[in-house]
Amino acid sequence: MTYCLGIRVDEGLVMLADTRTNAGVDHIARYGKMFTWERPGEWAVCICTAGNLSITQGVVNALNEGVASGGRLCPSLFDASGMYAVAELVGEQMRRLEALHGPTLARAGVSAGASMLIAGQKAGERHRLFQLYDAGNFIEADEDTPYLQIGEFKYGKPILDRVLTHASEIPDAMKAAFLSMDSTIRSNLSVAAPLDLAVIRADALAFETRRRVWEDDPGLVAISKGWSRALFEAFRALPPVG
Amino acid sequence: MTYCLGIRVDEGLVMLADTRTNAGVDHIARYGKMFTWERPGEWAVCICTAGNLSITQGVVNALNEGVASGGRLCPSLFDASGMYAVAELVGEQMRRLEALHGPTLARAGVSAGASMLIAGQKAGERHRLFQLYDAGNFIEADEDTPYLQIGEFKYGKPILDRVLTHASEIPDAMKAAFLSMDSTIRSNLSVAAPLDLAVIRADALAFETRRRVWEDDPGLVAISKGWSRALFEAFRALPPVG
Questions:
Q1: Distance of residue A108 Cα from the nearest chain B Cα, in angstroms
Q2: Which one of A183, A186, A234 has the shortest CB-CB distance to B234?
Q3: Is the pTM of this model over 0.90?
Q4: What average pLDDT does the segment B204-224 reach?
Q5: Of residues B183, B222, B238, nearest to A227 (C-beta)
């Protein structure tokens, strides 16, 4: 399982992904699910993936080949007219991989389902966040819906609904993302740290943060413990219900 | 959709159920999903249902006929040797209804899936809580797992994992139940008040509480607003994460 979260606030983009994959309970592995491409001053793009790993790795491989070959082997996302066109390009690759592997996987009774979060900004455009489905279609976050989730999304949704708006500042968006992930990790064993974190501030056209956050990261531990304590105290302080 | 929650703590049993059912977004109705049987001093039994309404209503109808006919039309749960035997009786009825309607429903592409929470106590036994699956099999809550959920359970699970233990007192179990339901109602439109609440204190062998809680219930509103405010303040007070 997987949990990836993308937040788009006025100030920028915050992306957070876990790194656990599993095929059954006895085949657990760690795979990065966050991929970034950057051309400072022009482009910053972050993609997070969930679902069938062979499909999502195939898509990411094609995107890497496109960039590395300057668009010769596959269209390069750096040649796209903007983030919407990047999402279209990723969707095309998703459809190609689904068509290639879907029928065989279906016969084997394995889901080819996959989904992605695509975030970033091109110079001259606003920063944007999309969620791509396995059919290659996609939706975009807007002011009313400042976050998108893929994978095991339910446990971590209530906290986002309570504290996030498009006007939230980046540090608050990061806090909300970590709390959402913390709730998910506590409730689903197949979602686990280390986490991958990316922050793209609006109009910076570069990554402000792109790092791996380990289980024992002081910031992660502090927010996790602090939140547990705060929730417990808030719970105690509530009046009894009749 | 449905969300029902059963909590078993040392002090007793707390059951909470929503009342919304839907078949698509334009066919929304209110149905009680909590059913109770009581023989003060001998028995207090509470059942909450989720899933295919024709199946669950069929099971409840059989249980009611059993009690009303003194076991003539169907075994009466008041004749059961204890709560485990009550769960077995409910399971038998579940299997009967599944066998009756399952194949036809499957041909119509409709799920016959259903599940139930069965809580209560018989004189001379401890109080017990079971979760019954559509195959008629069931599991029991114990000291390590003081709660069981059916229906749309994920949104309301994190808060339970944080604050509940088997040693929690009844008022705290009630608070936790309402907060769990509040998170679910906020995140899923197809779960909605009014709610049905039942409390069976250990060894009371009668319902301490069995009432409908409406949207505008002062206690429900107070805890919902109080929790929102407390979470928001706790969120603000947390340190930023790197």
A1: 23
A2: A234
A3: no
A4: 94
A5: B238
Percent of chain A at pLDDT exceeding 90: 85
CB contact under 8 A, A179 and B235: yes
**What single DSSP character describes residue A110?**
-
Residue B233 with chain A: CB contacts under 8 Å:
234
Residue B23 has pLDDT above 70, yes or no: no
pLDDT in tens, B25-61: 677 788 899 999 999 999 999 999 999 999 999 999 9
Please report the pLDDT score of residue B58 as a whole number: 96
Q: Do A235 and B163 touch (CB under 8 A)?
A: yes
DSSP lists the bridge partners of residue A29 as A21
Q: What is the mean pLDDT of residues B122-148?
A: 96
For chains A and B, CB pairs below 8 A equal: 107
**What are the distances in angstroms from CA A124 to CA A9, A43, A169, A205, B207?**
18, 10, 22, 10, 66
